[in-house]
Amino acid sequence: MPALRELEQAYGQARRHKPFQQEFQRYLRDYAGRATPLYFAERLSEKLGGAKIYLKREDLCHTGAHKINNTIGQILLARRMGKKRIIAETGAGQHGVATATVAARFGLECEIFMGKEDVARQSLNVFRMKLLGAKMRVVDSGSQTLKDAMNEALRDWVTHVRSTYYLIGSVAGPHPYPMMVRDFQSVIGQEARRQILKQEGRLPDYLVACVGGGSNSMGLFYPFIKDQKVHMLGVEAAGRGLRTGRHAASILGGEVGVLHGSKSYVLQDRQGQIRETHSVAAGLDYPGVGPELSYLRDRGRVRFVSATDSEAVDATQFLAEVEGIIPALESAHAIAAVMRLAPRLVRRRSVIVNLSGRGDKDMITVGDYLGVRL
Amino acid sequence: MNTEIVNPTVSRIKNKFAELKRRGESALIPFITAGDPNLETTLKILRALEKGGADCIELGIPFSDPTADGPTIQRSSERALKGGISLSRILRVVREFRDASNVPLILFGYFNPFFHFGLESFCRLAAKAGADGVLCVDLPPEESGELKRWTDAAGLDLIFLLSPTSGSDRIRLVASRGRGFVYYVSVTGVTGARRSLDGRLRSQVARVRKAAALPVGVGFGISTPKQAARIAGFADAAVVGSALVERIEKAKNSGEKAHQAGAFIARLKRAMKQASKKGH
Questions:
Q1: Buried b (16+ CB within 10 A) or exposed e, A296-317
Q2: The sheet that has A52-57: what strands, in order across it?
Q3: A133, A136, A244, A266: which sits with the fewest CB atoms below 10 Å from its CB?
Q4: A15: distance to nearest CA of chain B, Å?
Q5: Which of residues 230-259 of A touch B (CB under 8 A)?
């Protein structure tokens, strides 16, 4: 808790500190490769026969996903705070890779906590992190997935609180993380807003993003919050189907609870024990969701829908075939929702989908799903 | 059969500390996880702990994501959850224990199961069952207003943690909101037996005691009679969790678990008593 106070203070200062923000912007540009394009997906739009669909190409960021935006921001903060050691949790491994990447860039010691189950299904990312010089901590407690990795990272943090910076990858966890991660990811929405105004001459009618913890969706949505005419759609992972109980849809299938220091919708049983989750997309496999997204849902600002494992895999194939872009399975959930939404809209409507990551990491999973052995 | 009526103005915890103070002793507070591996065993262990000389008992409410606990208590929570535990069934065991005992009981757990149950009904039913205090390990005192309202209404003591990183603001807040005693975490980190304790512990405890008009108990990492005796030299209580839970884990059957637990507590209590005699 004193560590959170320290972080809140340090971030509060950095947020207002111009040189810090300029440095952040410079690394986003020169290291992460921003701005990412807002790409008009012409064939996708044609095939679906409705609204004009734009893809925000976060998959083109360095390391292959939007996660790098936040890790650059936080590593600069960690350096400013004089911390020597960085720890992070990871599910699919994308945040772990993005953390290991910036830790290598700034020469800081780095340990990544990852559930045993995830280590097994994301071996490629595990190898990437090791190559980047990070130490892997395999977590075999609980369900051996993302939430347990986060539990273990929290335990490590309270044990080494004075020297260690905990770099959380989503808009979840205790304050100030949800706010800070949202701020660092807001570059997505800021760019998209400028780009759509330039390309379409007006704001979009819909924003669509997948929601696990919620960092890519908050990043896209936040700069549009006050634009009341812009509809926002969060897409949760329905796994094998919402009725099967084997999913990761915290908002659609959960109840209000407290997990990892924030009050939000949480997947839990009748005793308030946190439930195990399932999604084909490891990055959505988290039983909670950012508290701000829960708030935006309660206020009716963001509407939530879901996509199943098989819809996500179908969407992956569809986007690959019509646009030559292979999305991450996480982002494919957003594509799946757009495949249902776009045909119902007239041609002059526009939709921005956050293509939060690229699909290379998922080829083995998709292959398995389709019965192809790689 | 105990026929005492629950009186919200008189705390069993407060009385116990007052009584020990008169005798010049420090309290020994064992921690066990409820339902590890089942509730029948828990009741047996509770009775064995009392017999062994426990002054107060912390009963852990298992949680799926025990972020403040080390491997020993994580495993015990997993065993309890596998056995299918519920807060209502735990409270029934509390009731059964209370029917034949006056040892103060503290429910030690994480916020979500309490919150999900409903804070008001949880506090009311816990007090009715005969619990005396609540410690919610992942609830910062700054956020404790609502729980505090219901523990106060039910006559339960709400106990808070302080740690070596707590600043004076935090200490003051705990001093004003806390009841029963202050639980001082001896180390930065999670629960679990440790070979050595921080050398500055004595002065840290003194600092907390000066700020709070409450007894100060020390926990996290205490595992041997020698360590417990040392704590007894300057703190009002020593809390022993992981070292006890480990013994329970290793013992074969229900009877053996209770026996081992009672014997271990008796050894710790003896060492603490000797230490306090020397000190006076």
A1: bbeeebbebbbbbbebbbbbbe
A2: A38-40, A52-57, A350-355, A206-211, A231-239, A302-308
A3: A244
A4: 24
A5: 255, 257-259
**Binary contact (A272, B167; C-beta < 8 A):** no
Q: What is the mean pLDDT of chain A?
A: 96
Contact B116 A268 (CB under 8 A): yes
B52's tokens: 């062994």
Nearest CA distance, A165 vs chain B (angstrom):
15
- Terminal-residue alpha carbon distance, chain A: 47
CB A328 within 8 A of CB A281: yes
Nearest to A350 by CA among A197, A203, A247, A250: A203
pLDDT > 70: what percent of chain B?
95
Q: Burial of A137 by CB count in 10 Å (0-12 exposed, 13-18 middle, 19+ buried)?
A: middle
DSSP A283: G
pLDDT at A326 (0 to 100): 98
Amino acid identity for residue B69 in this structure: D
Which residue stretches of A229-324 are H helix? 250-253, 291-298, 309-323
pTM higher than 0.90 for the full model? yes
Q: Chain B residues with CB inside 8 Å of A163's CB?
A: none
Least Cα separation, residue B162 to chain A (angstroms):
10
Q: How do beta strands B182-185 and B157-162 pair?
A: parallel
Among A125, A111, A262, CA closest to A180 = A262
Look at B65 and A274 and tell me if their CB atoms are within 8 Å.
Answer: yes
Complex prediction ipTM: 0.93
User: Is there a contact between B167 and A2 if contact means CB atoms under 8 Å apart?
Assistant: yes
**Residue A89 per-residue DSSP state:** E
Within A94-253, where are the H helices? 94-106, 116-121, 123-131, 146-159, 177-185, 187-200, 215-221, 250-253
**Alpha helices (runs of H) in B8-118, residue ranges in sequence order:** 12-23, 39-52, 71-82, 87-98, 111-117
Query: Which of A7, A160, A161, A258 best probes binding to B when mutated, by most B CB atoms within 10 angstroms?
Result: A258
Q: From CA B57, how far away is CA B107, in angstroms rounded?
A: 9
- Mutation for A interface: B116, B161, B166, most A CBs within 10 A: B116
Banded model confidence at residue A142, pLDDT cuts 50, 70, 90: confident
Tens digits of per-residue pLDDT, A40-77? 999 999 999 999 999 999 999 999 999 999 999 999 99
Beta-carbon contacts of residue B256 (< 8 Å; ≥ 6 apart): none
Neighboring chain B residues of A147 at a CB cutoff of 8 Å: 65
What does the pLDDT look like over A219-258, one tens digit per residue?
999 999 999 999 999 999 999 999 999 999 999 999 999 9
Beta strands at A255-259 and A262-266: parallel, antiparallel or unpaired: antiparallel
Annotated catalytic residues of B are: 58, 69
Distance CA B49, CA B46 (A): 5
